[in-house]
Amino acid sequence: MNTSTQPPAAPDADAPASERIRYRLVSAGCRHHANDNIADFIQPGELDELQAEVQAKLQEVLKALVIDTESDHNTQDTAKRVAKMFVREVFAGRYKHAPAVTEFPNVERLNELMIVGPIKVRSACSHHLCPILGRVWIGLLPNEHSNLIGLSKYVRLTDWIMSRPQIQEEAVTMLANELQERVQPDGLGIVMEADHFCMHWRGVKDSDSKMVNSVMRGAFLKDPNLRREFLSLLSNKG
């Protein structure tokens, strides 16, 4: 029995942008989960088309919710506003390339613990698309071969990773992978603390619970004294 699957048929040139982008992703065997970056598969002008397509779908959602957007002045442009927010702002980390980051050689051979943070985090839960708001701290132990980057670039990279629908555990791991590849330190530690509005707003409606998780790599994982120093410095920041 021949169990091979046929490649998807190429969409017409006038097919919706989402279909054309999805075709390229599937043809390349590239995953496109909620927290994946797909910027390499979007051609010039298609993001505008995608935003318009999302706007049209959201208008149908409002209609299905039995909201009279024609006579309700508060919701007449809601679909347009939400589509722009999704594509250009809160989920922009899916659709745009990584920010440019200038890397500098570690000329002075710095090898002491450095901490960046707290960096404000704005993300969204991929289960309910509710906001995740919190803070991230990044600890680095560079070596003579590490690439040093400017402090603002940690903020830009964090925002790029976090501006996607996702779960906190995966987001911290993705940020760690990105920084490990760019900086190549001896040790890397990341701690994230966040409020999840899927708990505040719905379900148990618990307004006090936060989630804290961490990723430890290299020296931070192997050296308990270094890890203890990193975490103690964070606790003193409140």
UniProtKB/TrEMBL annotation:
Known pathway: Cofactor biosynthesis; 7,8-dihydroneopterin triphosphate biosynthesis; 7,8-dihydroneopterin triphosphate from GTP: step 1/1
Top-level enzyme category: hydrolase
Molecular function, one GO term: GTP binding
GO BP annotations, alphabetical order: one-carbon metabolic process; tetrahydrobiopterin biosynthetic process; tetrahydrofolate biosynthetic process
Keywords carried by this UniProt record: Hydrolase, One-carbon metabolism
InterPro entries: GTP-CH-I_C/QueF (IPR043133), GTP-CH-I_N (IPR043134), GTP_CycHdrlase_I (IPR001474), GTP_CycHdrlase_I_dom (IPR020602)
GO CC annotations, alphabetized: cytoplasm
A Pfam cross-reference name: GTP_cyclohydroI
EC number(s) reported in the record: 3.5.4.16
Domain GTP cyclohydrolase I: residue ranges: 55-234
Reaction(s) this enzyme catalyzes, per UniProt: GTP + H2O = 7,8-dihydroneopterin 3'-triphosphate + formate + H(+)
Protein name: GTP cyclohydrolase I
Source organism (scientific name): Inhella proteolytica
